[in-house]
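>> received
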Amino acid sequence: RIWHTTHTMSSSISFTLTNPSSHPCQISMNQTSRFPPAKLLSYLDAVVKKEQGSAVEGCSAKMPQCLADIRLIEQFTSRGQSNPSYLMKCGNGAKFVLRKKPAGKLLKGAHQVQREYVIMKQLGSQSVGSIPVPFPVPKMIHCCEDENVIGTDFFIMEFVEGRIYDNMNMEGLEKQQIEQGDHKKGHHPVNSHQHTLSHTKNRMLQEMVHTLAHLHSIDYTKIGLSSYGRTTQDPNDYFRRQIHVWTRQYRHAETHTIDAVNKLIDWLGNGENIPTQNDPKFNRHTIVHGDYKVDNICFEKFPSTKVAAVLDWELSTIGHPMADLAYFCLFYHLPASMGGMDHSDRSQQLTTTQNQVIDMYSKAVGARNPVKSFYFYVVFSIFRLVGIVQGVYKRSLQGNASSSRARALGRLVEPMAEVAWQMVMDNDEHLPMNSGGVSFRNSLSFENGLKKKLIRFMREHVYPAESIYAKQMEEYGRAWKELPIIEELKSKAKAVGLWNLFLPRDSPHGAGLSNLEYMSLAEEMGKVLWSAQVFNCNAPDSGNMELLEMFGSEEQKEKYLNPLLSGEVRSCFSMTEPAVASSDARNIECRIEKSGDGSSYVVNGRKWYITGAGHPQCAFSIVMGKTDPNADAYRQQTMIIVPMDNPGVKVERAMDVFGHYDEPFGHCVVSFTNVRVPAKNILGGEGRGFELAQKRLGPGRIHHCARCIGFTQRALDRTCERAQKRVAFGSTLSKNPLIASYIAQSEIELEQARLLVTKCAHDIDLYGNKKCRSLIAQIKIAVPQMSCRVIDRCMQIFGAAGLSRQASGLPDWYVAARSLRVADGPDEVHMHTVAKEVFARSRM
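>> returned
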């Protein structure tokens, strides 16, 4: 062999040598993963010559003769964090991949590349006897366990042409879609409904889920893999073994103490936390890939969305199927820096939720019962990932990691463990307080992504528009017309993905936020009273959208929900009536009567203080009325969708609130006189009005209270600025002890209220609306009262300017807070709810 050229860098080495066929072979590999290529070329040449292309022991196919004429060996630098992998290109253009163990000292049982070879060989067989196994894996060529050849075990497989993406954001897909999909004959334009980027990503996600279900449906005992992993009578023993293994692996690779990891080890080590599934499809032994995620999946060439091959089987074994499914779903829980989704542009993101993925998988494997405590499997998967990443990081410190990114990965261990421990605290009802208590910290991806983006948008677009809004209000608002500045800001917010943020986590149309996460966004929006509509998050539309999404028929969603989601129309919610005390919804007199043939309903009633009814874009109202006055008191009421342009619907007038009409939305008197609407407009079914109202009001009250905290905070901040500048009696107001006590007391009350709302949001996420009725009532009482007290002190500190909307803005905020003490039920009703629960608890 003759060395022609040598070029060495700090992390890689490149050179050329002559192969056994007397052709140059270019070599490029990392210093840490370097092996003697001349020995490999000689070995392959000898095998080819010896067998002359016939099938040999250790080969799943005939040994291609072209392997005696390798022209290129190049290490994959961005792939193979664990086992180094190399592209080999032959003189005839054929491509292969060599995969080997890392060099240096390894943990016991790790990096068994021969296991990868075995399972892919078995899965890649077209059939084993009469059993078809058409599973997508590369074709195996040769496995060598002789360490004298290149220093470690290795195997060779065919190179699969296709596409691999680093994460679920699938960078590069948009370019492929534009460059190829838009120009190929017979394909629709990229911006057509069926070929949007989001649509393509969701199709690819479905293919990945179906491929995983296919893997788990293969009977491993019938394809020669009976001894591939340990099995016991209880499939959950897999988790017990894995928790032990990964705890040991982590401890061997541990470089410093991480509190969250130690807590996870203790919690996972308690076998009682492992859920037992009722459905046998979720409680069985299957082949598990062990590292099933998008960067280990090769897709067919564009425009196909099918899986061409599943790669990297190093961690595969016989185990529990939920381990694979949860590991695959980690991108829903981790920030982009850890392999999760980048939420910067919702228009290009996956709309398939984790629950939909689970449902899709369940149907594919034939399960009939739901998965229990799926969060456990997610926590376990993150813990495994923590062990894997810590091991890669430790090898980087020892100088034998296969990727240049290995050291950077080490910085992710602690934040990943914190995400997992937060999930435990959010879901484990039996977690003792001394194990970490209740933490209200939001996910890292949320804090570093969406929240920062909203704050930046407010600073760059909304606050500067306040003066424009005030001017346009005089010209357009007073004439009950939409303000141009609102439409302009809505377009900007929608373009950057700050849209429909209030929708619950499992909604396919929202940002995937919990109530806790959205609460902090609502607080930011509340700092400008009208800004929620910029993000399509304003009441009553937000509550109506939630109702339609939860209880609407497909036709109702198409006709009423979708235009609301896109911000094309507005809506209102008609419940309160002038003739009765509507704080007791049983008093409602509006009638919704079915016609004789049952094809329609006739609505008669008079409502007042109906927010949004005066808006020029208000297209429909969800009306609460009685369908059966003789039914149980809480089954008499029904909700029905009434288009505002129906004959008999009349917006009589706008009601003033403290002398203001809140144009162009208004709080109006609306009458319904013999209004006939189709029976299909009933929402959720007859007699479910109370039930739907409770579903609507829980999150809605969090939204109101969070926004109230937002403008109260801004009022206090603005007052502090004035107090530090305004001079009276020889010093600034801030140095006056009485003023300082006002500020201090206001800060204390504000923070108390914020924490109460935070706890309420947290508990609703955990237990649902019904179990949190008292907390919902408490925030509805405490927050507006606090706001009124704080803003009243701010008015005193401001002096006469505090009474002026133009000079301080405080009156608008005060009116909003004081109104909230009546809106959605007066304080006294909520006091009664709280007291009932306290008395009930005292009797236990």
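>> DSSP finds 23 helices and 23 strands in the chain.
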